[in-house]
Amino acid sequence: MNQYKTINSQNAYREWSSQVPELPVFQRSWWMDTVCGTEGWTSVLVYDTTDEVRAAIALPVGSKWGLKTRIQPLMTPFSGPYLALPPSDLRTEIKTKTLYWEILEQLISALPPVHIEAFHLNPEIGDWLPFHWKGYKQTTKYTFRLQMDDPDKLFEQFKGNVRTQIRKSEQSIKIELSDDIEALYIVQLASYDRKNNTSPIQLEYLQRIYNVCQQNNSIQSWVAKNEAGKVVAGIICVHDSNTAYLLVSGTDISQGSHGAVQLLYWEAIRYYSDKVKFFDFEGSMLPGVAPLFLSFGGKMTPYTRVFKCSNRVLEAGLRVAGKWG
User: Fold this and answer.
1) Which pick of 52, 191, 281, 298 has the fewest CB atoms within 10 Å?
2) Can you name the residues that pair with 41 across neighbouring β-strands?
């Protein structure tokens, strides 16, 4: 007899997640309601014989081109799963790994069928083998995580030119806490415009995320102003009990913002240094961004993007269109 049972229920997930203080912010039901809509996501809970939840995940449900999809939501870097193996000091490494596989297989098997899916696993999920067994493919992506410590020690870890830039910027740039999301959005747009790109984020969407995170005490935002009082850069961070995440970052270099972003990062790191274990720069695979995060002492941390298509013909078409992998 199967020692696990699975439940696909938003209500069960909402009730369970409200009782798990260590659950990542992006796996909260209120986060999923905000980025997907209350009817736009599904969840799976895996229970053992003691009725303890051993695995859980919340994922979007949608449609595109008339096909059912499960695609990573915008501004949601990771989608789980949450795993909680039964505690034991006597279990061998082999038994621990086998148990991990068993529970994760139960979770994956209970996901509702879709035509196209692609989502990101938490960095803590380094072993994606059960997904492979279920027909998923994967690619490795990277984020950068700074382990928190005394601010003075953290500052000494920064690359020399970063420390110099911060000290210099402090002479002409003023950092302020701000809930002016429109001003933050404008400098974020400027960053995209500078690269001739279009931001995928709409102001209304960003404001909605900010409002719900503020209601749940899970967000902090800062702006940088030049000597004329003009907002030249801004960042938004969200946080849970373990990690603070750099969710939005933008700068308008046409307004004399040189060094403002570095100063903002330093302000956020100092603020969170005694509140969380990690500061996650929220990755970037871009050659101009990854070195910046590394220069702050961020440790290059891999995470997995898993993806699956219901048939090979559809997958081949997506690859040709450049919308796969």
Assistant:
1) 52
2) 60
Instruction: Give percent of the chain with pLDDT exceeding 70.
Output: 95
109 & 188 share domain: no
pLDDT at 115: 94
Indicate whether 29 belongs to any domain. yes
Dihedral sign from CA coordinates of 265, 266, 271, 274: positive
Residue labelled with tokens 């240094």 = 273
Q: Which domain holds residue 192?
A: 149-276
Distance CA(55)–CA(107), nearest Å, equals: 7
Query: E-assigned strands of the chain?
Result: 5-7, 41-47, 53-60, 62-64, 67-71, 82-83, 116-120, 137-147, 174-177, 219-225, 231-239, 243-251, 278-280, 299-309
Written as one letter, the residue type at 168 is: K
Beta-ladder partners of 235: 222, 249
Alpha carbons 120 and 277: distance in angstroms, whole number:
21
Q: What is the pLDDT of residue 300?
A: 94
pLDDT digits (tens, 9 = 90+) for 138-154: 999 999 999 999 999 99
Q: Is residue 1 packed enough to be buried (19+ CB in 10 Å), middle (13-18) or exposed (0-12)? A: exposed
> Structure tokens of 93?
């490494």
131 shares its domain with 166: no
Residues 104, 54 share a domain: yes
Residue 257 has pLDDT above 70, yes or no: no
Mean pLDDT, the chain, integer = 92
CB 185 within 8 A of CB 243: no
Token pair listed for 158? 């920064």
Residues 220 and 124 in one domain: no
CB neighbour burial string for 231-241, b if at least 16 within 10 angstroms, e if fewer: bbbbbbbbbbe
pLDDT surpasses 60 at 1: no
Number of domains in the chain: 2
Verify that 72 and 162 share a domain, yes or no: no
